[in-house]
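Project outcomes to date are best conveyed with an example. Our students and postdoctoral researchers have been running inverse folding experiments weekly, and each run begins with a structure described purely in tokens. The record below, which covers 601 residues, was selected by the lab manager from last quarter's runs and is presented without edits.
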């Protein structure tokens, strides 16, 4: 039985070596000047003669290596020491083969049009990375005895019951420094320029408007840096929460890095994550306090835990209904869950069904163990699963590619809890080895992510990237010059009535606060269009009109393109009602640029 097992392992080793040889051959052939797999696999197709050549090389390599293995390797596998060495060597070859194949698949996804959704790719690192991996794979075969000794030392290190205190201090300092290095943006104006060109600041305005409402006239660059700071604080806080809850540095690192990967760098946040902050884990960033509260009560006051969880859940439901309205909160006007399939967004479709099923499955298992002795340890994952189901209502309302990342943190926490349960009966060495392996996999997935490689942090600074967007942004001040008109006709402490494109940018420049509670009111448009109303309900529209009437402002500022719209373009919507009210109570006073100041009659 054992001999048969090692026979299959020998076949696996031969296949791994053959794949490595074939990859090197394909890469070398890519420099020969006719269509090759590496250089142009999809646009022109692989030449039939070359396809057959690769197939013959792969078969020949397998046959030769298998014959040599049967002759020289298989007889030596009767020794226990040789078997142990062979398993280590096989695992190492599996790593090299995975990395080599990863390079090929990563390259094809950069080139294939269906996946090429990001306009600013950076695939230049792949070929040097492939060459380095091939060189390391070759060196590992030459210096395998030294690698075996190093592996034995690593085993001894991972088997230690306790480490010196400075180890954990160094780990924490290294982690925090790494997070700052990955997320800090030295030139936030690049992100602001990109947000202007791609989104007209419509989503970034939701954050900037909060500052303006409170009289803090932070510019967009400062808003971006503020978001980065919040992201760093959230990730560091999540790291320490997982460490306290699951008592594992490895799981804490895995959870924090996986949150960055799945909550920031996915296709829905292209081309830069801070264009729409609501697509990140910061959409529910306050839940870090909820997690720490859950942990505190589960440890310090376990008898009060369910009372605290019920109160927190009730508060969330009340806040949810008040902020979204009963129609939205009950999901009565939502898109169907299969909506992502209409635009071939398969992963969001999968996430829309897998994540809630994962929560429900976890709840059923956890509730079914209510009679076990460690019931106190099950309270926190139960609360996290229920919380995950509660906020998943957001995804049901927006089942699209750009939203699942904002709801992923509870699922990651539950996944880490399940991982801890699976490894609970294992030895300390197995736990730490599995944790180290998963950590390396997650770190590799993060550092090779396409959006991570275009994120303008301190590592990836490219002055030639986003040139057109930056040039447009540098000249944008000329467009919002009408802000001077607002500053001229209003007092510093006066709330301003403004209906216009780029209303947040105008108020930011004018240093004035908006009158409306539902602000921003308009969706900006970078073309010659007047924009559109950003109010969802009739009540919001009526509240806006009532606030204008109650304020009885001397001046109202309106985009001239709105006033020029014909009646048939307005229809019977809220914009028609608002403009009709203004025309009945105000008259044109002065115009500057695209902005018209209306004076009360």
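After processing, the design step wrote out the following sequence:
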């Amino acid at each position: 039985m054992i001999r048969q097992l090692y026979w299959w392992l020998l076949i696996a080793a031969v296949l791994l070596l053959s794949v490595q040889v074939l990859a090197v051959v394909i890469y070398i052939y890519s420099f020969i000047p006719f269509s090759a797999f590496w250089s142009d696999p999809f646009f022109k197709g692989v030449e039939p003669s070359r396809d057959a050549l690769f197939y013959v090389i792969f078969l020949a390599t397998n046959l030769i290596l298998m014959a040599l293995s049967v002759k020289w390797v298989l007889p030596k596998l009767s020794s226990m020491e040789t078997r142990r060495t062979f398993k280590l060597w096989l695992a190492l070859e599996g790593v090299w083969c995975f990395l080599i194949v990863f390079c090929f698949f990563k390259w094809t996804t950069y080139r294939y049009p269906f996946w090429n959704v990001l306009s600013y790719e950076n695939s230049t690192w792949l070929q040097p990375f492939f060459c380095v991996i091939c060189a390391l794979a070759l060196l590992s075969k030459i210096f395998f005895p030294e690698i075996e000794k190093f592996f034995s030392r690593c085993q001894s290190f991972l088997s230690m019951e306790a480490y010196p205190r400075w180890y954990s201090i160094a780990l924490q300092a290294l982690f925090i420094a790494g997070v700052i290095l990955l997320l800090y943006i030295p030139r936030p104006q690049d992100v602001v320029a990109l947000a202007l060109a791609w989104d007209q600041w419509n989503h970034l305005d939701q954050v900037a408007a909060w500052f303006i409402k409170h009289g803090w006239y932070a510019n967009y660059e400062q808003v971006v840096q503020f978001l980065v700071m919040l992201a760093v604080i959230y990730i560091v806080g999540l790291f320490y929460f997982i460490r306290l809850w699951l008592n594992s540095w490895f799981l804490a690192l895995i959870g924090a890095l996986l949150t960055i990967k799945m909550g920031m760098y996915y296709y829905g946040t292209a081309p830069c994550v801070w264009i729409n902050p609501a697509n990140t884990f910061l959409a529910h960033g306050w839940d870090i306090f909820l997690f720490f509260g859950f942990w505190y009560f589960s440890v310090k006051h376990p008898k009060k835990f369910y009372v605290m969880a019920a109160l927190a859940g009730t508060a969330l439901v009340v806040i949810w209904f008040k902020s979204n309205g009963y129609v939205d909160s009950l999901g009565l006007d939502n898109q169907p869950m299969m909506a992502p399939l209409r635009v071939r967004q398969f992963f969001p479709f999968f996430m829309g069904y897998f994540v809630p099923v994962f929560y429900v499955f976890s709840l059923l298992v956890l509730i079914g163990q209510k009679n076990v002795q460690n019931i106190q340890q099950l309270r926190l994952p139960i609360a996290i699963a229920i919380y995950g189901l509660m906020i998943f209502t957001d995804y049901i309302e927006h089942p699209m590619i750009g939203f699942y990342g904002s709801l992923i943190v509870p699922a990651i926490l539950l996944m880490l809890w399940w991982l801890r349960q699976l490894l609970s009966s294992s030895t300390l060495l197995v736990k730490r080895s599995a944790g180290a392996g998963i950590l390396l996999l997650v770190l590799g997935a993060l550092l090779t992510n396409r959006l991570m490689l275009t994120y303008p942090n301190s590592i990836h600074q490219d002055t030639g990237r986003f040139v057109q967007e930056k040039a447009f942004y540098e000249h944008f001040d000329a467009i919002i010059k009408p802000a001077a008109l607002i500053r001229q006709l209003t007092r510093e402490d006066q709330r301003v009535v403004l209906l216009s494109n780029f209303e947040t940018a105008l108020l930011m420049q004018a240093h004035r606060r908006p009158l409306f509670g539902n602000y921003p009111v308009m969706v900006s448009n970078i073309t010659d269009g007047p924009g559109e109303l950003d109010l969802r309900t009739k009540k919001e529209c009526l509240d806006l009109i009532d606030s204008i009437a109650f304020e009885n402002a001397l001046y109202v500022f309106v985009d001239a393109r709105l006033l020029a719209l014909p009646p048939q373009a307005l229809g019977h919507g809220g914009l028609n009602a608002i403009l009709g009210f203004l025309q009945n109570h105000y008259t044109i006073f002065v115009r500057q640029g695209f902005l018209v100041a209306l004076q009360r009659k």
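The chain has 25 helices and eight strands. Confidence is low (pLDDT under 50) at residues 36-48, 111-120, 325-334. The training component of this project remains on track.
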